[in-house]
Design a protein that fits this description.
With about 500 residues, the protein is of the alpha/beta class. Helices cover about 30% and strands about 15% of the residues. Helix 7 links the parallel strand 2 and strand 3. It is globular, with a radius of gyration of 25 Å.
């Protein structure tokens, strides 16, 4: 009896370490790529999530002109931002970027309302651009006085939203664009564009000021101090305060010294183990190894299935990432089709919205999110928790090659009801047609042609999500032929559920 009790006790201790399965022995990550490669860069929850939402929102939203790079271009005399600034606010030497911060009031920011909207849109994670290139921190920072709690909104934007998201079972992403923040051109008075840094060093302009606290806003700091106290310090602060599930980096991460990049990764991954969480690091270019991080493609997509999970960051608008008065918003159908295409190729979408400086989200952007969310609420089983099939799809629409450099070509893509995207889950294959082929129309899915199938696949049944009508189908050598129902369940995209 005593042996039985001891054995039972030991088993109870073993299985109490985690829900359902024994906890893995903790890894102590060292700041080397070899050690960091032990990290599972794309955990299952991330691959299952498919859709996240973030937002470009900060003092650059106040002028609502040009784009989120206004803080930079307002200093260049040949730019339209310079002329606009001069006419509306006065000379840049008298009214600098820092003067916009008191105007960034965010009085209509409601984290509960925002989190509700993101959840209704179908996102499984969300969060802020924690800091853009401009040096303003959207959290309660003790490193810089230029933060949302001490200035502008005088609220902990990141903290309030994180609490609201987690109350809804959603995960938190924080994105960092501050790799460009450091002024890297000391001793180069002949520079004209200052390509490696966000703020230009023009004499008499605020970014050239070193008095007071302006250096922490404009990046006019000694390089080693900036790396340690600002770049790495801010990352550690957000990690410690908010325990983000995803940390995402914009381009120019390669401008940060490699040992600091390694130190960040080790710190984040070791802290995550203390939280008993699997976290994700996302990078946009070849500045972190892909056995440590997830690859991100800005405003572009892969044109084939990738063995590794990847991400696209895309925005609801056709232009600026932040709110501008002339911002043009894409149709919900186009954004939905991008999501469906990405998921079919083992990707995840990070979708940007653009709130106003007062903290309100414009109705046209809300409508896009709610329309997408309505579709996902009905047909999301073809998206969430799925994996790619042997082919991502078929149809006449062709994607360009390349990355962000080709983003204008990606913007021109319009999918049609002849384009099909596939996903799979368990014994089901989902064929999502990007439009309505027509009432009673015959459709042949050529990916099911016997010569195209990787192995013998026997179809058991075919149904259409959202339709009660019986689907007449036939599996033949040239593909799976089927007849559309007499009534369309949806006009944006329809899903065939194929049991094998």
């Amino acid at each position: 009896m005593q042996k039985i009790l001891i054995t039972s006790f030991l088993m109870a201790v073993l299985f109490s370490c985690g829900p359902g399965t024994p906890q893995k022995e903790a890894i102590v990550y060292e700041p080397t790529w070899e050690s960091l490669a032990q990290h599972n860069e794309a955990p299952e929850w991330f691959r299952d999530a498919k859709l996240g939402i973030y937002f470009h929102w900060g003092p650059y939203s106040v002028p609502a002109y040009g784009d989120e790079w206004y803080p930079r271009w307002m200093h260049f005399e040949n730019s339209r931002e310079y002329k606009h600034h001069l006419e509306k606010y006065g000379h840049q030497s008298e009214f600098g970027y820092h003067n916009f911060i008191p105007m960034f009031t965010a009085e209509h920011f409601d984290p509960e309302e925002w989190a509700d909207l993101f959840q209704k849109a179908g996102a499984r994670y969300a969060g802020p651009v924690a800091e853009h290139h401009d040096g303003f921190s959207m959290w309660a920072s003790e490193i810089t006085p230029w933060n949302a709690l001490d200035m502008g909104p005088k609220r902990d934007i990141t903290g309030e939203l994180a609490k609201a998201l987690r109350a809804r079972g959603m995960k938190l992403i924080t994105t960092f664009h501050h790799d460009r923040h450091l002024q890297r051109y000391a001793g180069k008075p002949d520079e004209t564009r200052f390509e490696d840094s966000h703020f230009p060093l023009f004499a008499g302009m605020p970014p050239a000021t070193t008095s007071g606290d302006f250096d922490y806003l404009y990046g006019n700091i000694e390089e080693e101090k900036w790396h340690r106290e600002v770049w790495l310090g801010k990352l550690k602060e957000v990690i410690d305060k908010y325990q983000p599930d995803i940390i995402w980096f914009d381009s120019w991460l390669d401008k940060v010294k490699e040992d600091y990049r390694q130190e960040f990764c080790a710190y984040y991954l070791n802290e995550a183990q203390k939280w008993n969480k699997e976290v994700v690091i996302v990078r946009k270019q070849d500045d972190l190894p892909l056995d440590v991080s997830v690859d991100d493609l800005e405003k572009s997509r892969k044109n084939k299935i990738d063995e590794k999970a990847w991400m696209t960051d895309e925005t609801v608008s056709t232009g600026s990432w932040c709110y501008t008065e002339d911002l043009r918003i894409k149709p919900a159908k186009d954004v939905l089709h991008v999501l469906i295409d990405i998921v079919s190729k083992n990707g995840v979408l990070l979708l940007n919205i653009s709130p106003k400086a007062d903290g309100s989200i414009p109705e046209d952007q809300k409508n896009v999110l709610l329309t997408m969310g309505g579709w996902l609420g009905k047909y999301g089983e073809a998206i969430y928790d799925t994996r790619p099939w042997h082919t991502f799809g078929e149809g006449p629409t062709v994607q360009p090659e390349g990355h962000f450099n080709n983003h204008r070509e990606f913007l021109k893509i319009k999918y049609s009801n002849e384009d099909v995207r596939y996903t799979t889950k368990g014994r089901y294959i989902y064929a999502t047609i990007l439009g309505w082929p027509g009432n009673g129309q015959q459709v042949t899915l050529k990916s099911f042609a016997r010569e195209n199938l990787p192995e013998k696949t026997k179809i058991r049944s075919v149904s259409m999500l959202g339709s009660k009508e019986k689907i007449n189908w036939k599996q033949a050598d040239d593909g799976l032929s089927l007849q559309m129902p007499a009534v369309a369940p949806d006009e944006m995209a329809v899903v065939l559920k194929i049991k094998i």
